[in-house]
Amino acid sequence: MAYFLPDFASLKIVSAVGDGTSVILEWFTPYPTLPTNKVAIAIYYSENESNLFYEGIKAVYYGNETSLKLSDFEPGQLMFFAIRLLEYAPTFDFTVLPNIGTNLCSIPQSLLAQPLSLTSENIVLVNASEFPSSGLVLIGSELIRYISKTGNTLNLTDINDRGFNDSTVRPHYIDGTDDTTTWLFFRQGCSYFLGADNTTWDKVMSVEVRYDYPNFPGNNNGYHQITEDIVNTDLSASDAANAGFPMYDYSSYHRQDPAMLLSGECIASYQGGEMNCQDDSSGAGRTVRGVSIQDRNDQRQEMLLRLTGIHTVLIQKQMTGITCKCMILHQEQPDPQCDVCVGSGIVVGWVQYFDARNSDGRLRVRYDVYDDVVKQDEMGLDSEIDTSAWSLTMPTIKPRDVLVKYNIAGNEDFRYEVTGVTRNNTLLGMQGMQKLKITRVRKTSPIYKLGVFADTSTQPISTTTSFMVALSGKALPTNISNHAHQIRTNEKSNLTWAQNTTQNSGHNHPVAVINGVLTVLPVLGHTHILG
After folding, report:
1. 239 pLDDT band (50/70/90 cuts)?
2. 316-347: pLDDT as tens digits
3. Comparing C-alpha atoms, which of 410, 390, 498, 387 is closest to residue 448?
4. In sequence order, what E strands does 240-361 have?
5. Are residues 27 and 138 in the same domain?
6. CATH number of the domain that 7 lies in?
């Protein structure tokens, strides 16, 4: 019987590869009892430690290495492993067993198609295609030798082939019972496989199959995705209801922009009154018209923001999509320094919002006054500012979104992270306004890596990228569907600003100017072409 040295027995270590599906087994060097023999490794694994050996041999390694990589496990599953030694003569050919890897084979097994009585001389299986032409099979605790195979039937020489190696002859039924014990499956092996029953060096080790950086979480069916935003209230209906409110018309006796009034121009007008009246001058067909309180509310807030608001770019944090590689198993908090998601936990996870109501594509946000206090700490001088701001009810701004504030010269001032949102309602359940709690972000933060389109001049132009393009020397990934993205460019120059594409198929891409060319940067093993 094969053996280990006393101080170096059985498994050495079992470790997760970090790709979510694979583990590596390492063991000490085994030795055969007869120098002319060889030693194979019988591998056992199970999700249940108590069933580890009962489930039988899952694989046999007959190479010369002392380590092996096994794959196709379920991500996040805790697995138990053990090995036993199989001493065999060099003449035995493992290639007659199903090959599942380099010097690695599995043990054929099948359910019984017909029961065996105490005198049965043939074994009829449901499927015997993987069984060798002759050998030993184990049914329950009885070893049986067969000499040939006909279709799904294993043929014995005579009744003396039953109860091989002094095992007890028992009846075996299709339901898996043998009058004493229930056996869940049928497995076959050669006579040399009896060495696997030696329990002298049994050592059970466990490992959790997990994803480690830089592998992206997922499985064989694709990348892991967050498909539902469970943090924020879904206000998409509110956005849709408010998106098309008419612009303030500045007509009739309230015809002038209030900015002209405040600039000192004489305009002979008062702000307010009815707009878009359809009645004719004679009064014929005059109708009584209702008033859209929501439109009036939005119009007057917009008018106020045009006077007192600050030009601001809104970068929306994506709450759903493909999980970033920095989100390792059992860690719900992304790495804020991650170069892919920049702390969002989603690939890429940040999308700039373009406001169609303003030609520069930016929102108007009113920032409250605050004390700009610089304090001294261990890291040196630092400025921590928590303040508030407000904006129109659309687009919906959520916690973790980022506001990019611009100064009077048109240059970027600071970036602020939204830490809380207070919303109110007008009539009929409509959203009234958004009051934001914001925190100034240090300029050393990775959030400043997010590229934004600072000004769309007169109108932003929407451009569609090509479908997926493989990286140089690599094939297209198969675990993500073919897709394209949208990107906003400037009508005067498409090379001026970096940004991110819109999200599609659970991710988006950074876009940057490289060697004078606006380029979509690769993520998830692919990229796209612009223009």
Report:
1. confident
2. 998 888 888 887 766 667 888 888 888 888 88
3. 498
4. 310-317, 321-322, 350-353
5. no
6. 2.60.40.10
pTM of the entire predicted model? 0.53
Residue range(s) defining the domain that contains residue 311: 236-272+292-449
| Shared domain check, 123 and 200 | no
195-205 residue pLDDT tens: 456 677 788 89
HSE-up of 356 (CA within 13 Å, CB side)? 11
Output the six-digit token pair for 24. 């590596």
Please count the other Cβ atoms lying within 10 Å of the Cβ belonging to residue 509: 25
Residue in this structure with the two tokens 């999200």, named with its chain if needed: 503
Of 22-26, 96-100, 165-169, the poorest mean pLDDT is in 165-169
Question: What's the mean pLDDT when you consider all of the chain?
Answer: 79
Q: Which of 449, 181, 170 is nearest to 336 (CA)?
A: 449
User: Looking at the 3D structure of the chain, how many domains does it have?
Assistant: 4
Co-location of 444 and 358 in the same domain:
yes
The rounded distance, in Å, linking the Cα atoms of 374 and 305 is 29
Q: Are 60 and 201 found together in one domain?
A: yes
φ/ψ (deg, to 5) at 139: -120, 115
Structural element, H or E, at residue 469: strand 469-470
Nearest in space to 431 (alpha carbons), one of 422, 442, 440:
422
Q: Are residues 258 and 357 in the same domain?
A: yes
